[in-house]
Amino acid sequence: MTLNYFLENAGWANVKIAKGDISCSITVSYLHDSLGELTASTNLLLQGIKEAKVLFMDEPGEHMMFLQALSDTVLEIEIRWFEDWASWDLITEKEYKVVFKVQTGLLDFASEVKRNLEKILKENGLAGYKEKWVESDFPMKEFERLQKLLLEKP
Q: How many angstroms separate the CA atoms of 9 and 104, rounded?
């Protein structure tokens, strides 16, 4: 499984997630702290929570990534596309289309999230991230927690 999170011009990012020949591309707006939520959700899964979700707002529409730990090692990822903002109750959470669904290793997923955080930080720095992402700071505390949690895993 691969995850690639790229910051673009101010206020925009692109995420591509793939496993084998199944992939999904996501456009992300600064209107939500998606990178911070992705990192925090990954940490919670590593700490034993069974389900988490990550919101990726577009303008208009949004993707929601549902993460479900099927065991201590297996993670199911389902990404749903909403034509408008279900997170702001502009449509219901029942009005979606599943655009990506796979199972992967929890540690593989967490390692991909960590790799992307390292890359984004190296390419942009803290100030550069804030300049591009406007509303949110780089999720440094959650990133440090993720590094620690991965070091604790066998």
A: 31
CA dist., res. 118 & res. 75, Å (int): 22
- The pLDDT tens digits of the residues spanning 69-84 come to 999 999 999 999 987 7
Q: Are strands 12-19 and 2-7 parallel, antiparallel or unpaired?
A: antiparallel
φ/ψ of 7, rounded to 5, equals -80, 135
CATH code of the domain made up of 2-152? 3.30.2450
Model pTM? 0.93
Q: Dump pLDDT digits (tens) for 120-148.
A: 999 999 999 999 998 899 999 999 999 99
Strands 22-29 and 12-19, by their bridges, are: antiparallel
- CA angle at residue 149 from 147 to 150, to 5 degrees? 65
